[in-house]
Structure formats: structure tokens, C-alpha cells
Amino acid sequence: MSTIYDYTVKNQQNQDVNLSEYQGKVVLIVNTATGCGFTPQYEGLQKLYDTYKDQGFVILDFPCNQFFGQAPGTDEEIHSFCTLKYNVSFPQFHKIDVNGKNADPLYVFLKSQKKGRIKWNFSKFLINRKGEVVARYGSMAKPESFEKDIQDELAK
Q1: How far apart are the first and last CA of the chain?
Q2: What is this structure's pTM?
Q3: Which of 29, 32, 63, 133 has an alpha carbon 20 to 30 Å from 42's alpha carbon atom?
């Protein structure tokens, strides 16, 4: 069975990052956008990250411009917006596609584990310490609504 550790993604500097770097951590993977009605979720995501990062929790942010062009700009511009407006300090990656023929292989894998097309920005996948997808949350799920699931995974 595959895990997220089998995948390599591009960071904001377009350099390869093997997700095995996050082995042993509880990971939340999110496709984001800076011009979306859900963009204020960055605040809740940062709060979760600040609360649990020292316990082995990390958020991986993948900007996506597939939904009505709500993530315009370069990776650097997106990062600047997120750090200035929401004080984001969790890892942000290169802008990707999450659906269609150009979907990033990581997202092809994530969707194969928790079925279904990504419907919008701020879809979230919770990954356990073994690199397995354990839950999926839709765009409307505010970060605080699944905090207990993160606590449960961290306790394992």
C-alpha cells in the first residue's frame, strides 16, 4: 500500500521535496487559494499549527488556481500574502492542479484513498504518522471542527 512518503513535490523554490521528510508526523494537506471565500481559514490553520507543531503536527499548503482563478500570482506572491495577512508559518509548496489530466500525483493518490474529485479550495486530508490518509474534510469544514481528530492522531 502506498503512503504519502512515496511522493515528491515541488516547494516554492521549485525544488524537489520528498514527503518522507515528514515521516512520523501527523500531516494535514490542504489545497488553498488567496482569493477565495474560504481564505480566512488560513487563520484557523495557523492556530492549529501553532498549537500542535511541537507535538509532531505539520500542515502542507498547496496553492491551486483551478477554481475560478482564486489563487493568482506567483508562488512568492502567494507566500507574501499568506505571511503578511495571516502570519502563515507552515510549509507552502508550488502551485498545483488537484483535478484533471495535470493533477499532481500526490493528489491523484489522496483522492484514490478518500474517494472523489476535489470540489473546491480548502479541501483537507488528514494523514497519520504512518503516511496513510485517515480523513478528508471539505472546504466548509473549519479547522477547529476537526481539531479533535488531530489530537487523536497525535496521541497514537
Answers
A1: 20
A2: 0.95
A3: 133
CA distances (Å), origin 114, targets 8, 35, 42, 87, 101: 20, 26, 23, 30, 19
What lies within 8 Å, CB to CB, of 14 at 6+ separation is: 75, 94
**Nearest CA among 152, 98, 104 for reference residue 129:** 152
User: Rounded CA gap, 117 and 134, in Å?
Assistant: 17
In the set 4, 28, 36, 103, the catalytic residue is 36
- Domain positions in the chain are 4-155
User: Is 64 one of the annotated active-site residues of the chain?
Assistant: no
Hey, what CATH topology would domain 4-155 get? Glutaredoxin (3.40.30)
- pLDDT tens for residues 31-90? 999 888 889 999 999 999 999 999 999 999 999 999 878 887 888 988 888 898 999 999
pLDDT band with cut points at 50, 70 and 90 for residue 114: confident
